[in-house]
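Same chain as my last thread, 59 residues:
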Amino acid sequence: MEDFQKFYWYKTELVQICKDNQLPSYGTKAELNQYIIQYLSGIPQSQIKTGGLILTFHH
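reply #2:
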């Protein structure tokens, strides 16, 4: 994880890392970084969630 945090990553690179590891691959650059850091800390992919809004539509 320290190696990951030492480098500057472009957003496109972060998106690809997230996709390669079945993590959420959208959001701000800070959010993408957080998903990867959580993953590298040992948190299972299934527990890494986006912080965005969930929209529901009623018919």
